[in-house]
Amino acid sequence: MTVPSLPHQAPPAPQLLRVATYNIHKGVQGLGPTRRLEIHNLGLAVEQMDADIVCLQEVRKMNRREAEYFRRWPDVPQADFLAPEGYRAVYQTNAYTRHGEHGNALLTRWPVITHQHEDISDHRFEQRGLLHVEVMFQGHPVHAIVVHLGLIPGSRVRQIQQLQRFIEREIPPGAPLVVAGDFNDWGSQLKRMLAGYGLYEFEAQDMNSLTYPARLPLAQLDHVYVRGLTPLGLHVPQGRIWWRMSDHLPLIAEFRF
Fold it and tell me: Where is the Endonuclease/exonuclease/phosphatase domain (predicted)?
């Protein structure tokens, strides 16, 4: 008996996860009476990134002084305002100030399973936190952690150690994991520490990964590290329209399952 041959089936297309991280400088650029409201331009920028997960730092929930100063200040928290149509916004406050509060946010076009926040402040002069969100990406649970580390080198080391304890406590060992944000680090110590924890990023071979300061980038302070995913590449948008919106440039990275 001759067995009929089956029609050729192409292998399934690789699943690509696109992650962006962006310190938005609270939606305002400049100081004093010449400062500019950039939150509306940032909303267009976030939509243009077309990312599955957008990790944001220095996001204002509210600020009474700026709301009085700017006529076009949004009526909703910045995370909700920046979320493109069809995206879910998750926000947690890190810092409380005289006029309001700000923190980290994650925007995603995929369903959110759970989310939580942990205080990682190292001293009383800097209020810092991590935001953990689990999303369901194309049928796969993916854990994402948004961070904004401190300005003092020793603080950053201790915050990375606290991050690792959080991961060991809250995230299954085999689960795909993304850790993204503003690491505020000009050296390679944190990269080595994260590699020791099994977290890696795409290794750019040129200067196109530099994100700070936006007008003339000298360092890559913003990173997307992963575990259980394959880094494919990264992109940093360039040009005047981008450096006018924040003191950081966004970083966009792609990964394969």
Answer: 20-248
